[in-house]
Predict the structure of Copper chaperone.
Amino acid sequence: MKEITLKVEGMSCGHCVSAVEGAVKKLGADGKVDLAGKSVTVKYNEQTVSVDAIKTAIEDQGYDVAK
Amino acid sequence: MKEITLKVEGMSCGHCVSAVEGAVKKLGADGKVDLAGKSVTVKYNEQTVSVDAIKTAIEDQGYDVAK
């Protein structure tokens, strides 16, 4: 398992937290949003999930992920 | 049909808009959120829905409605 913390812009409420964590969960990874810190920390299996896939899943929910 | 505009605090994103408009729709009324204006304008049938019920439905979603 690896862990990465991504900066995410645009999360403003509990619904946003659910949307982002849900998108990460769908990939089989485990995300925890820090709303005040504008970030999400994701634990993932690098054999099955790429960081790019995680970023894309979050962006698909309508949020900007720092490159 | 009557129309009322309620001031609502705490709505911050598209998910909040969906939550509030969805709660109003469940009552059989028609709500339109103005996110920037921090308000929701609701068209409702006063024979079947009370303003109190509308306020309660929005508050149940976790938002403050001005009294």
